[in-house]
Amino acid sequence: MIALEKRPEPSRAFSLAAPLLAVAATMFFGGVLFALLGKDPFEAIQTIFWEPLFGQHWRYYSPQLLIKGAPLVLIAIGLSLGFKAGIWNIGAEGQYIMGALFGAGVGLAFYPTESVFIFPLMVLAGALGGWLWAMIPAVLKVKFGTNEILVSLMLVYVAEQFLASMALGLMRNPQGMGFPGSRNLQQYASAHNAELLSGTGMHWGVVAAFIAVIFGYVLLARHRLGFAIRVTGDAPRAAAFSGVNPARLVLFCLGMSGLLAGLAGVFEVAGPAGQVTIDFNVGYGFTAIIVAFLGRLHPVGILLAAALMALTYIGGDIAQSKLQLPAAAIQVFQGMLLFFLLALDLFTNYRLRLGRKEVV
Amino acid sequence: MTQPLLSLTSLTKAYPGVIANSDVSLKIAPGEVHALLGENGAGKSTLVKMIYGLVKPDSGQMQMNGQPFAPAEPSAARTAGVGMVFQHFSLFDAMSVAENIALGMENAPKLGALSAQISAVSEEYGLPLSPDRIVGDLSAGERQRVEIIRCLLQNPKLLIMDEPTSVLTPQEVEILFKTLRKLSAEGTAILYISHKLEEIRTLCDTATVLRLGKVVGHCTPRETTTREMAELMVGKLLQTPTRAGQQAGDVVLSLTGLRAPAPNAFGMALKDISLELRAGEVLGIGGVAGNGQDELLAALSGERPVPRGMVHFKGEDIGPLGPTARRERGLLTAPEERMGHAAAPDMSLTENAMLTGAVREGLDKGGFLDWPAATRFAQSIIDKFDVRTPGTHVAARSLSGGNLQKFVIGREVMQRPEVFVVNQPTWGVDASAAAAIRQALLDLAKNGAALIVISQDLDELMEISDRFAALNEGRLSEPRPAQGITVEEIGLLMGGAHGMEVAHV
């Protein structure tokens, strides 16, 4: 008989080891998966984890690490605040899209005026867009007790329709010869979120991501609000007893994660993506959920987890082109990471007992 | 001496890290009412679980009527004539009494026949209970009768009762005792677990005292004082809380027609509660669990704010204020449930000290938290209230119930409340810790604080209260001086036997 036994204290060692074990397990079972697909598992794993950093084209790939990692960090930091308090924003993808649309909208509205104020205005608009989109599930939850998981998730699909409508209609490039998609913001100096140091991938979104990590850390470790978030997650009744207002906490957590997702959106649309297109969003909002958990909802952990996820994204792309691995296999590989992490997470608070079941 | 019904010889049971029972022997004769005494964690539950077949002893023998007895599971124990009434009932709210009883029986008869049997047994033993009623509508006392009748239908030779009176009014206790005496007169032995020593003196013929898993003594309760029994249980001399009678000061807290709707389907609405609390006095509030205790505490702590005009603190209307604002003014509270309500289980003691201490201890500096100061505050609670723990970094859930309770009460007491409201301050706490907590409460009153102590332990209330009131169905009785009040009067204030008269026997 196998039984789970609650540990008297959460195991700190296991809490730190679980992400590493999860990565190891993912490599192993991912390798099995690739082998079953008829690819050399060692080559595949090496391509995914090694090639982007140390392969012959590392100069081209490694800036991608920051470009892919920054939006993940921004979104995941926001999500982790809510997740810690048991407030589940699953719709960061929608908030990311709305942030991009608001930001791009402001930029396009000013075209072709050149001014140093345009980009900061776009950033503010992007943050506002994400915040507003997250306020919908937040207000509905506070006022009517709706489930924020469902509402925020469904709003992703609404946001995607908005995006399509904008790319085909209002924001379509008038000089684009009928092709869908907006003007390219990379060619509009005042709105372009350009690389700060050429060839590094470093743009304002990366700066914002690092600031978000510090902000998240200070908030959770030192501030009253962060403490309220942690207590609510551990014991909601104790939080209420200590004076936490649950409604305000919901508004704060959802609002904050929406705002950060919106920021990620605007930095992306004005920088690496450059334009509003139908398929502008590539799932950062969902991947960030994995990143948040992989990073143990800890700001520094999230930074490392985002780097790892970005690596699998880039490595996955290389593996697709080089080894002809199907895109779905890469997604399964990324999914495994979350799966193993959550499974191993159990052992932080529980230990396995083999032997006869004891009735107590 | 007659042959014992049940004899236990050298029973030992160890769990990882703790020996629950070590070399325990005892004998119970037919018809004997045998008390099992001991503090929490003394091993009483493990011992009865071995008799009832829930736990297997590591070594030692049990004999029933001279035959070896080793039940592998509860049904084997029941077949051998052992019945057990648990402290926590295992009943389905949505089903009728008869259906519930049928579920717990092997080869239950048809429902109609069973109903007739239930009526017969309830008549015979003075346990009024209608088989058709839905369990969800029953009072705690009536639910217990369902459990007892379920046992009696199997004609037990030995009935084990685990803390049966903790949910009963004094009148209901009387009914229960009559039933138990009748059973005993008919030759059914009763193994009675309780920490209410006065009850044991009234009811039981013999007592076995356990401490840390070992038998430390036997006594005849009728010839032993409660104090001697308590000292046998804890193994040391008990400090009786002392207090100096003193003049009550100004009114610090007043409730005027306090009403609050029930928080949920299982809650109780507060109905028109009025009282005035003066500095330096202790108001004891008794009542059977579930009559509005939690709701009253929530209305006072600010967890559930109430409309204007109902709660005044030193003349200020604080009804709509939340917990933090009330704390700031000096109104502190400690809820009944330690784990998850008074304390966050997975958080450290430092963090739990921050939980309510942030405002009054100056741990919150413009929104930023001073953790070193919180650690010092937690450490001072640990030192002053003798909380046994390796340090301030351990999670609250790793503390024993009594230690966590000392921490939770200490945390509020250390913040110098002007009014302190506490629900069940010594619930599940061992005798010496309970005495320390009561003394701390009395010291608080002596220094001029006003206290409301909500408790289901009448002995405790009598020991520390200046005035006494009872909650019944969300209403509070008129507070009256505690001195000279009798248990019968208290029982009537608490709502008598919940409308149930003793059946004609």
From TrEMBL, chain A:
- Please give the superkingdom of this protein's source: Bacteria
Q: Could you tell me where this protein is found in the cell?
A: Cell membrane
The organism named in the record is Sulfitobacter undariae
Query: One GO CC term of this entry?
Result: plasma membrane
Q: What is its main location?
A: membrane
* Membrane spanning stretches: 12-37, 65-83, 95-111, 117-140, 149-171, 202-220, 249-267, 273-294, 301-319, 325-347
InterPro entries the UniProt entry points to: ABC_transp_permease
The membrane-topology field of this record reads: Multi-pass membrane protein
| PANTHER family linked | ABC TRANSPORTER, PERMEASE PROTEIN, GUANOSINE ABC TRANSPORTER PERMEASE PROTEIN NUPP
Establish whether keyword Ion transport is in the entry. no
Molecular function GO terms recorded: transmembrane transporter activity
Output this protein's name.
Simple sugar transport system permease protein
State if Transmembrane is listed as a keyword: yes
Write out the entry's keywords from A to Z. Answer: Cell membrane, Membrane, Sugar transport, Transmembrane, Transmembrane helix, Transport
From TrEMBL, chain B:
Coiled-coil residue spans: none
Segments forming domain ABC transporter? 6-237, 253-498
Look up the domain of life of the source.
Answer: Bacteria
Cite the GO molecular-function annotations of the record: ATP binding; ATP hydrolysis activity
> What are the entry keywords?
ATP-binding, Cell membrane, Membrane, Nucleotide-binding, Repeat, Sugar transport, Translocase, Transport
Cellular component GO terms, alphabetical: plasma membrane
Record carries keyword Endoplasmic reticulum: no
Membrane topology, as annotated, equals: Peripheral membrane protein
Where in the cell is the protein located? Answer: Cell membrane
- Keyword field contains Transport: yes
The record's Pfam families line, in alphabetical order, gives:
ABC_tran (PF00005)
Secretion signal, residue range per the UniProt entry: none
Question: Which coarse location class applies to the principal site listed for this UniProt protein?
Answer: membrane
**Which InterPro entries is this protein grouped with?**
AAA+_ATPase (IPR003593), ABC_carbohydrate_import_ATPase (IPR050107), ABC_transporter-like_ATP-bd (IPR003439), ABC_transporter-like_CS (IPR017871), P-loop_NTPase (IPR027417)
Name the SMART domains on file.
AAA (SM00382)
Protein name, UniProt field: Simple sugar transport system ATP-binding protein
What organism does this protein naturally occur in?
Answer: Sulfitobacter undariae
